[in-house]
Amino acid sequence: MNPKLFAQLRPRQPLAALVEALGSDWRPPPPEDQGCLWGPNHCCLARIDVQHRLGLLGFYRAFPSAFQFEGLRLGMSMAAALAHRPGLRHVLLPAEQQLALVEYRDQTTAGDHLRVRFFRRELVGLELECPGLSYPGAELATAATGQPQA
What we know:
about 150 residues, alpha+beta, 7-stranded antiparallel sheet
């Protein structure tokens, strides 16, 4: 995977951009994963819609912290993130996650949903998602490989 290329991906880009960013790590997601594909060491996530576009991109703790996303970067403090993006709004998570994670949400200028998660007041996860997309099962594997999947 090329972290710089992956960090430049955004929702609505074509599947080919993801394939290029992942390089030899690319593999079509299995149908049961509904278009979700994890990067090496679970440092990032991409979800591909039925039209073969990127719908969701996730960047997590193991992803290099040198890259910025919507002005935020992994590892930054909650105070710095909230100062940079005053539109971030706190969201209550399910009870089992509340002790570990704090989540904030916003909308980007492109209209994408931005989810930011903090652990011990440190930014550990960031997701960008284009709302309203449909996600696949078996159709994606066929499109990516040109071969129907068993």
